[in-house]
Specification:
The chain has 3 domains: 27-147; 149-239, Orthogonal Bundle (Helix Hairpins), CATH 1.10.287; 243-279, no CATH class. 65% of the residues lie in helices and 1% in strands. By secondary structure, the chain is mostly helical. Helix 2 packs across helix 4 (75-96) and helix 6 (107-120) packs antiparallel against helix 7 (134-142). It is built from 10 helices and 2 strands, in the order ααααααααααββ. It is a multi-pass membrane protein. One of its GO terms (molecular function) is voltage-gated potassium channel activity. Residues 169-240 form the Potassium channel domain. Its main location: membrane.
């Protein structure tokens, strides 16, 4: 009879072992699950990653439409809902990361944190809302968008895709800036279309002159838009038309881009064994 408490304690310990695997706390199990979902290759992880990409693209669409939606009664509900989604995604990525501090130091994390702040204070930071479009750039740099494409396709089109997304992000950011500071009196779709029209005409140096930003601030905005826009157009042309390179890290110096038929690394002379496209 004296051993009854020992029997009870043994049963309780066995029960705890069944609910909590040896060596794993609930937090560690959650982190392991998130790592499998964000970085795994199982069918479940694939569906989760596709879902994350779809949600991210919907968030970017909301950011693009924000100048038009800001005056509607449902805008704040949408804004705070997106804030909750962004915060949940950022928190989940932090838990899934092997080194959360390193993740926080990356520019994509800075962009996400800034976007989260603007979402939490939509009225106070209304004039900075156009910078939320940077989420598109952050999405393209995260790697999630490209992970499920064939490796050969990613290697061939990665630079061009990044150049296109950089140019598109710049156009949308400048459009949001122009709309916020120069076209807000003409609110709604018409004002946003005018801002987009001015941005595209300026970046392409078409210069029709039917829409001109007033004052010195407007002229400086046009100058910066033309200079940066031309640079991004040149970068896009280089990515599309320059001689094709393959991505094959040199085992000695780490140089990643080489000619498809390269035998030696042009940086250190290391012998390379680049597989053919059919391999």
């Amino acid at each position: 009879m004296e051993r009854a408490p020992d029997v009870v304690r043994g049963a309780m310990v066995a029960s705890r072992k069944q609910t909590t695997p040896e060596g794993g706390s609930p937090l560690s199990r959650s982190r392991d699950t998130l790592r499998k979902l964000y970085h795994g290759s199982t069918p479940t992880a694939f569906r989760f990653q596709v879902g994350v990409i779809v949600v991210d693209l919907m968030i970017v669409a909301f950011f693009i439409a924000t100048p038009v939606l800001r005056g509607t009664s449902s805008f704040l509900w949408l804004d705070y809902t997106v804030a909750a989604i962004v915060a949940a995604d950022l928190g989940a990525r932090m838990l899934a990361a092997n080194d959360p501090i390193r993740l926080l130091r990356q520019p994509t994390s800075w962009v996400d944190l800034f976007i989260l702040v603007t979402l939490l204070f939509p009225e106070t930071l209304a004039n900075l809302g156009f910078l939320r479009i940077l989420r598109l750039w952050s999405l393209s740099r995260s790697g999630t968008l490209w992970r499920r494409f064939p490796r050969s396709a990613v290697r061939e089109w990665r630079d061009a895709s990044h150049a296109v997304i950089n140019l598109l992000t710049f156009l949308l950011v400048v459009t949001g800036f122009v709309y916020t500071f120069f076209f807000r009196n003409n609110s709604g779709i018409a004002g946003y279309v005018d801002a987009l029209y001015f941005t595209v005409a300026t970046v392409t140096t078409t210069g029709f002159g039917d829409i001109v930003l007033p004052g010195s601030a407007g002229k400086l905005t046009a100058i910066v838009t033309m200079l940066v826009g031309i640079s991004l157009f040149v970068r896009l042309a280089q990515a599309i038309f320059r001689p094709q390179k393959v991505y094959f890290p040199c085992p000695r110096c780490g140089l990643q881009r080489h000619d498809p038929d390269a035998v030696h690394c042009k940086a250190c002379g290391q012998i390379l064994k680049i597989p053919d496209e059919g391999d």
